[in-house]
Amino acid sequence: MTLTRCLVPLLTFVLLAGPAALAGTDSVDFGLLDDVQSIGEDAIDPRPADGEVLLLQFWASWCHSCGSLMWDMDDIATRYERVRYIAVSLDDDADAARAYIRKHKLYSKYSDRYFVDAGKTLASSLDIETVPSILVVSVAGDVRLRKSGHLNSSDLRDIVTAIDQTH
Amino acid sequence: MKNCARHLFVYLCLAPVSVYAGDGVEFYRDVMPLVADNCITCHSEAGVSFSFENPEETYNLRMAIASAVADERMPPWLAESGHQAYVGDYSLTAEEKQLVAEWAGAGFPKGEPTASRFASPDVMEFDADLTVSVIPDGSYLPNQERKDDYRCFVFDWPYEEDMYVTGFMATPGNQRVSHHLVNFVVGPEAAPILKTLSEEEPGQGHQCFGGALPDSIGSKEVQARLEERFPGGLETLYKNNFWLSHWAPGMYGEEFPADTGILVRPGSVIVVQMHYYSAFAPGEPDVGTEMHFKLAKQVDKPSVNLPLTNNRWLYGARNQTMTIPPGESASYEVSETFEQVAGFASHALRIPPEEIGALELRSANIHMHSFGASGEASLLHASGQKETLLSIPRWDLDWQRDFLFEDSKIIPKEEFGRARLIVECTFENYTEEVVYGGYGSDDEMCFNFSYVSVIRQEESVASTE
Q1: Which residues of A touch B144 (CB under 8 A)?
Q2: Do the bridges between strand A53-59 and strand A133-137 make them parallel or antiparallel, or are there none, so unpaired?
């Protein structure tokens, strides 16, 4: 299927990327955000502005749980002026991610915050093995919370609490 | 399962430290059979999510598989182990999880290919007595403006005599957008009211997040209008709709427990509540979901799916009986004596109370919405001993299901007054608004559904003798 074809290069990349990339880090190199490609025409800057907490989601167009989570994350992010929410696709084919967002009316209105990490540089640096994955990242770039997989109400409350406690 | 489990046992006997001794764990020989037994029912070309049928493509997902198993995200089996043995339990044992962990730790050895394709477990033959297509116009496009669309379709029950449903299978019209479905029987007293309400909604069917009834009845205005046209109609609707059967990805034909069935009377309608989830296949319609029923004119043990809740919680915003403050957690509990359960069964099955000699409790199924965090259903025996029927330490709206006991619980009539069925739910509110009990997708519910069979007085006496 398409999704497995998409995943092969990703996981191959992760496996072959070397120990440093595999180990991942507990901080985000904001410079790597310059490498992600925007999906929408009026994309926001993926880098958080001064004083902003980064709510960083990894997703893929073939991921069953990701779409639902994007809805929840948007709901949480819009509560905060100091949170920058971006969703980074791990699709190999940026067009697949773009087509997904355009096709689904539910998400097309948020297309300004969706990106593709086609080179997997950002994902590899953070040891992302699963989509969806959610990271709450401090102003200094420290990862304060990681969640992955199918999230429930407790997970979402943890995310809200982490944002409240992160600066 | 469980060729692999047999191998496992042998190896466990030989190797106290490692799950697998000697050659170590290999993908083709050890891991892929586990995947085939426990995952392919959903992860297939015909299933709801990406396919594990091709072992080479599955191997490419090795890191994701190992991660999902280690975190216990997959397979999605919500019931905590150690309380009851459940029929069809596809959760992995501790040994199986360790096997996957060892495989990952060893660098994912592949081994020699054993097959180029793996199939899901055998699908049972299902000879239906009645098949019905439920989409009136033959095609329905789920609401694309919402992440979830709960749509109910209504069809007339075609028989003019009492029938018992003894088995069920659903054929989704588009499995990529069909999250799950539930069938309800609406009895002849309430059928005209339900049909009127459904037909008043634009489009096919009606919106029905909370069950068979239209969500619109949560509105005071709609209730008032309903009462004008059908005095007592609201109560009639509540008292005469019953859970019949359900389907979720991975389920094939299902025979109800032997000698049991659920009564459907002439003049009833069946309401099919479809939960559509379009995130996986936006823009795709359901092109004709079908229901298939096995039927019998008589069964030894007429049965019901008992809904246990506090009905007042369903109007939480109005009466403040179920409130979850913003940013906080809250727990709710309700219980019923088996005297009350017998009363419900008597009403639903048209069996005089004095003819009920015992009740046989066969399953548990906790139901909450998206703010659910954990839940427990339990049986308080007449002796005072509390037995956990189902504990869900980490609730997930998407993986709810019936948990059918390997060993059913029989409650004799003499204990009806002292034995109780209990459900408790804990919620976490991550929003900035108060969440109330109610029918809507932003509201909450706390239910336990149990399949309960009636053992008639004479059979109960005979079995005692």
Answers
A1: 104-106
A2: antiparallel
- d(CA B57, CA A51) in angstroms, rounded, equals 43
Q: Residue B73: is its pLDDT beyond 50?
A: yes
Calpha distance A153→A150 (Å, rounded) = 10
8 Å CB contact of B428 and A154: yes
User: How is B289-337 classified by DSSP, letter by letter?
Assistant: -EEEEEEES--SEEEEEEEES-GGGGGHHHH-SSEE-TT-EEEEEEEEE
Q: What is the ipTM of this complex?
A: 0.74
The string of pLDDT tens digits covering residues B197-255 is: 999 999 999 999 878 999 888 788 999 999 999 999 999 999 999 999 988 766 778 89
Bridge partners (DSSP) of residue B132 are B291
Residues of A within 8 A of B61 (CB-CB) are 4, 7, 11
DSSP-based three-state secondary structure for A154: helix
Q: How far apart are CA A138 and CA A74, in angstroms?
A: 18
The model carries a pTM of 0.83
Q: Is B279's CB within 8 Å of A14's CB? A: no
List of residues 6+ apart from B82 with CB closer than 8 A? none
B60 chain-A contacts, CB cut-off 8 A? 4, 7-8, 11-12
Residues forming beta bridges with residue A89, ordered by sequence position: A59, A116
User: Pairing relation of β-strands A83-89 and B301-308?
Assistant: unpaired
Closest CA relative to residue B282, chosen from A155, A46, A71: A71
